[in-house]
Design goal:
single chain; 341 residues; alpha+beta; Nucleotidyltransferase, domain 5; Actin, Chain A, domain 4; 3 domains; 5-stranded mixed sheet; 10 helices; 18 strands; 35% helix; flat; ATP binding; ATPase_NBD; nucleotide-binding; cytoplasm
Length: 341
């Protein structure tokens, strides 16, 4: 195999890689385990994630991306190289890549993403904004003059954008998403039950019984952790109503941001959105009741995209066909890709 193009969604919580004709070939946690004494990387991805909360003092397990941007360049560089080698070990040369970036990132943050990928030997890198990729992955035709509102609720950021004619008409990026919901659960359990739980326990509770809108039937989850006073193991059964109590404010904040962005959007595009509604993508869009909460707050129809957690990488995959058009200008040459490196 001589080589192939690839699309990368380098997310706060997970990294996904898409290859043409193969689909999503990598979908693993964006986690790295490091030996503190030797500074060697011990594990990456799913293997490192299994170590979260279970390491000795010698090991540190870390997420090298925070709120959608790189916080530890060296670890991200190693992580990207590891994932690309897993999918391209039989290739003679490394592929061209379309990489996703959150909305409203700085030029320095863009360059950090490019550099972390280029060190793996990639020949050409093009960037695409996550809301554009999410819209394409959700099946929205972004090249029409019709406005569409996409809200991508990821692990570290929520990116919302009105897309039209292949570009963004209005955009807002909020550092409030899946990991912040996990933190809210951890704080809630400590405050109400004096129970200290880990990030994985909070995440499991969120995906099992978490909600931002009342459920018709209660569901329950057993939280296991350490008592903050005695230091002894403790288990507490919590209900979905309690999850609603601690998560709804985060959901409301996102809904308010959507409202604020709509107020800044051109009236004709708002009319389009009023007719078609809002599309939710991102893994956190699966949280129960997010569509109902946003619909109630905005008075607009809201739909969760099919396979929402993979919309961004699938859309970036569709963006691969535009790499060869980056240098072409003229009528009819709308291009969702931002820049070539």
């Amino acid at each position: 195999m001589l080589g192939t193009d690839a699309a990368i969604d380098l997310g706060t919580s997970r990294t996904r890689i898409y290859l043409p004709q193969q689909g999503v070939v990598i979908d693993e946690p964006s986690v790295v385990a490091v030996d503190n004494m030797t500074e060697e990387i011990i594990a990456i991805g799913q293997e490192a994630y299994e170590m979260v909360g279970r390491t000795s003092q010698r090991l540190t397990v870390t997420y090298p991306l925070v709120n959608g941007v790189i916080s530890n360049f060296i670890l991200v560089e190693q992580m990207v190289g590891y994932f690309l080698k897993k999918v391209s070990s039989s290739m003679v040369f490394m592929p061209r890549v379309v990489a996703c970036i959150p909305g409203e990132v700085t030029e320095v943050e863009k360059r950090a993403v490019v550099n972390s990928i280029s060190t793996a030997g990639v020949r050409k890198i093009c960037l695409i904004e996550e809301p554009i990729a999410a819209a394409m992955g959700a099946g929205i035709d972004i090249f029409t003059p019709h406005g569409s509102l996409v809200v991508d609720i990821g692990g570290g950021t929520t990116d919302m954008a009105v897309v039209s004619l292949g570009g963004v008409s209005a955009m807002r990026s909020v550092k409030l998403a899946g990991t912040h919901f996990d933190e809210a659960i951890i704080k809630y359990m400590r405050r109400k039950y004096n129970l200290i739980i880990g990030q994985k326990t909070a995440e499991n509770a969120k995906t099992t019984i978490g909600c931002v809108y009342p459920k018709e039937e209660l569901s329950y989850y057993v939280m296991k952790g350490r008592n903050g006073l005695s230091g002894l193991p403790q288990a507490v059964t919590v209900s979905s109503d309690e999850m609603l109590e601690c998560l709804v404010e985060c959901g409301m904040q996102i809904a308010r941001e959507i409202q604020d962005m709509l107020e800044e959007t051109q009236p004709e595009l708002v009319a389009d959105i009023y007719a078609e509604g809002i599309v939710l993508t991102g893994g956190s869009a699966r949280l129960y009741g997010f569509d109902n909460l946003i619909a109630k707050k905005t008075k607009l129809p809201v739909h969760v995209a099919e396979n929402p957690d993979r919309c961004v990488v699938l859309g970036a995959g569709k963006g691969l066909e535009y790499i060869d058009k980056m240098d072409q200008k003229g009528e009819g040459m709308l291009n969702p890709l931002l820049a070539e490196y």
